[in-house]
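request received
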Amino acid sequence: MSRLRDFFSERVPVSPETMRELTNEPVPNHLKRWWFALGGTPAYLFIIMIVTGILLACYYQPGPTTAYQSVRYITEEVAFGWYIRSLHKWSATFMVAGVILHQLRVFFTGAYRRPRELNWMIGMGLLVSTLVGGFTGYSLVYEQLSFWGATVASNIADSVPVLGGFLKRMLLAGESYNQHTLSRFFVIHAALMPTLMVLLLVLHIAMVRMHGVTEFRFPDDTSEKRYFNFVPDHLFSEIIVGLLLMIVLSTLAVALPAEMGPMADPLTTPEVIKPEWYFYVSFRWLKLFPATVAVLSMGFIVFLFFLWPLIDGLIRRRWPGSEASMYVGAVTVLTIIALTVWEAVVAH
Amino acid sequence: MSLRAKQVVIIVLGLAFLGSLLLVQYMEVLRKKQEGGDRATAHVVVPQSSQSCVKCHTEKTPNIVEHWRYSTHSQKGVGCLDCHKADRADADAFDHEGAVIATIVTPKDCSGCHPREFEEFTRSHHSAAGNILASLDNYLAETVEGHRGNFNPHGPTAGRGDITTVNGMASAASGCQQCHGAKVALKGKDGAKITLDDLKPDASGRPTNTAILATVQRTPEGKPIIHESTWPNTGIGRLNLDGSRGSCSACHSRHDFSPRRARQPENCGKCHMGPDHPQEEIYNESKHGIAYRDLVSRMNLDAKTWVLGQDYSAAPTCATCHMSGNVRNGGKVSHDPGERISWTNRPPISKLLDTDQNHRIVNEADPEKRKALTADSWGDKRRRMKDVCSHCHSPDYVSAFYTQYDELVILYNEKFGKPGQSIMDELYKQGLITKTQFDEPVEWTWFYLWHHEGRRARHGASMMAPDYTHWHGMFEVADRWYMHFIPEAREVVKKGRESGKVAQADAATAVIDKIMAKPEHSWFQGGMDAQYDEIRKQMEQRYGSK
Amino acid sequence: MAGKIGSEPDREDRDDKTPGSSAEPSRRDALGMALNTGVALSLGASYGVLGGYAVTYLYPTQRQQKAWLFVSQVSAIASGGQLKFQAPSGAAIAVARIAEGSSAESFIALSSTCPHMGCQVYWESAKQRFFCPCHNGVFNAHGEGIEGPPKGQNLAHYPVKVENGLLFIEVPTESLPTERKRMASAASCGCDKRKLPVLQNEPQCQTEDDHEQA
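response:
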């Protein structure tokens, strides 16, 4: 036994003490409050996405003639296929929600401020990758709604001035949806986005570790110590969150499993076409403004948010103690909610 | 929260997660069970021998391949060649993409795998439907409606200069033969029909007169041409080149060979409908048909075995009563629908269906001899039908129904069928009408009376359709009899007397008078007034005076 | 609530709730052990079952891989005769009638795959034997290895059965979904044709007019 330990400690020259120190990051007390654990939730969901995604990729075959059939095969014939697919789908929905909630928390607590501006930008990158992943994944099913969703998206890209045509052709691998399109989407969904997200996540977490978690002291926090241990205390919390998520996801998978819509028909646009809920905002936006205006304004708004820590820094340098970010955030959130609800309640 | 508390929460949540996973397992089992039924068998297997057929015909005739994909054959590895393959010695065999095949698949081909069905069908009246081709009905189509042979057009047809002759047999080909079956013929180089009579097939179905095969017209690829007047044809009594009778696709349809379809009344209604035998309409009018239309979703028409009382119980279709298996008969299906029919209402006078060893009807009148000849009596047949009835009805009910039915048939037979037949026989016997059919009004009238109206009445009673029994049936029989048949018969006699056939006229008049003097007809000859007063008195008693 | 950027905190500043740091060590230990075991079991069981599902999911579905296929009418194979049957997967199978009877026992269906290295054997009718060209393996008519490396090994048998005078063989298949499934999944206008009662007319897909109203 000790020989075995010697064997490894010689080859992996990390002392148990260092290991302990590395893994046992001190956690500020405020993290005992559950809503501060929202960053860990998407991370956990990301792992579920990766695992179920790998499982799904074992049967999925991209291509207009095979995609739908292979998804049908997974859903109807493979043992637990419907469950794996439903887990994947529901995790995606929860992950988008989790990322957004985490970002809201960071925004409204001002946790993005100096010196964490860059980490906010990485976070924005993660949000965009999550949305792209959600969109491409949805398209892979090759059912009516996802096919037309992809068509609309490619035309969104097309409305970008100058670069539009190039972007569209790059996205679709041709002038319009063709036999190479799905392979491209599959690579974006299953290779590009996960890799990018892993890189960004590593950076994100590394930055958190380097800066330390932003500390908050709540008035009602009466404990003498400012920190608690990551292991096992916070780990237990994360396990609990993980289990709760698994229970909710499994229940949803049973109650509302991922179904098969009608197969994509390039000749007939369905009566009612809706993207996934997290694109309702942009979908409504597109209906409100001419294509180019809508696309450019959306891009600009996303860009502003990307740069928000810098903008906020400028504002606060000019007017110290300014609460401008609160107002901007509130207005943005209310607008997003309003547009989403609007899109959700009307058919067209 | 303390660590302890968290641990407890983890344990509880872990168990809850396990619980939700058990729910997942339950769903999985449920889904498998739900879809397992058709999934266990519902997979198409293209046998190696037919893979190239399927590949090419998916392009050329995609839908027949689709039909086949839907069939049980496709799931059991029975492919194109298993049915279409032919022996090079067969009359209609030809080379096709490396295989020797034939176009028409006959009951003999099917019998390889379905020998019992073949045997039952071949002894049934259905398979003899082609025998009509030399009968009175066919005489109508070939002579009265058309012409035996070709004749010249009455005038030119604008736009079609090629119409130089008229096929007098067209009505027979498109009408009679599509139900009764054509006598399939290869086309000779001179246009002649080469049928089984010329080919003289042996027991294996191969022609013994091989010399005649040289005279068959063929396409450049070597495919023999089947005479257009005999194919396409799926008549149930088709007379095939290999000597077998009938066509399985008459009811089961190619290429999905659907038991489901044969179980539905519409299938039988292709032929069993119309003025002379409206069985489909009668069924639709009956409570049986009404229940079927309402409960069709509970008929379990896709069931593998379709046993009444086991696989379904909602309503009976034609097949249920006449052919399909039921719990009482051990689920035995018969492809001889005659096995449960006690009366034949087809001829002018209904006959009881005693059949001999060869499943032919026994016409012997002498009770002893008749009994000796009978292998399967009408009573046996009725017992089999009563077995079906008894799944829903009590024995008393069924017996009482049969009493009602018998009495209607006997009423028709005794009041109109037999008297009418004896009048017609007398008119022929005395030479008052010619031997040529349908050249005198009374012949048409008599034909309407028994062939259309008389059958409607009897069929209506047999399957519980009151309107067909009465208004479309006996009422019209009576109208035909009193207002047309008897006056026309007397007219014939009168004309005969005027032309000098006095003795013959007297004899015929005696027959007619004797019939019309019988109590059941006496109302028509006068003396009805007294009866009428009697009726009025009864009506007043029942409903009160006006 | 103002955020404070913290430097690496001291160990002393931690709420270090490592088990066993307070009184009554023995009772605590027992309870702690029980709780630790409980956590391990609970997590192990639940995630283990999930892992089991994943394995089940990945394991190829056996169910559809085989089917009983019609080979021939029993009467079409003479006693002592044999015929070549090709499974839909392409596998060549020698079906032989080895006895007079017409039950399944009178038939033998042999794989043409050599048990030695998986090459395809062929029938040498002159010598009444199967020969494997890869390593000179020889099998007799019953598929028993009699010479060469596969000596003592037999060619695999396929199950056969006789029903109503028809010979069936159970072979691996390449199967396609049936019409029913395909129709259901390919319904493109949103009208699900399966669910309509039989007697109803063809379902009307939504027309342009409906589009306007919606």
